[in-house]
Design brief:
two-stranded antiparallel sheet; about 25% strand; single chain; about 190 residues; alpha/beta
Length: about 190
Amino acid sequence: MVPGAAGWCFLVFWLPVCVAAHGFRIHDYLYFQVLSPGDIRYIFTATPAKDFGGIFHTRYEQIHLVPAEPPEACGELSNGFFIQDQIALVERGGCSFLSKTRVVQEHGARAVIISDNAVDNDSFYVEMIQDSTQRTADIPALFLLGRDGYMIRRSLEQHGLPWAIISIPVNVTSIPTFELLQPPWTFW
């Protein structure tokens, strides 16, 4: 446990997650690890949507991370069958974050990871917020740096694979710092 402004906050899967009595929220992170393909077997950092989407109630030891087709996921997906009961990897752009989340949710995804469309972005997290439509989404929605999304997609293309296998969420507090395998292209 870590002392927070209004009491104690628990560090389990979110780091750091402390919500004070007045609703002040410190930046949240969620971590996932790519298990396969091996050339990108790293722990990646993502941020959850600010005001829409669900939370992870379960830890998935091995689940498919399926790149959406088309990548922006603003309409019907040609590979929607493969996204059912898996996690979709979507690219930013073309429609709102909430619209993308709803599209993959309608295809039965358990969560969506939306990577920035700026492939050179290796440090700036975008705050995903509700659009003005009053719609909702129930599945978790996470934002991933553009460089990370690009490297995952590139690895899958190089290996001719339709998806990666990931573990999500990962509790990084239980991993010694020297074993925390983060992408070498991301600077902290």
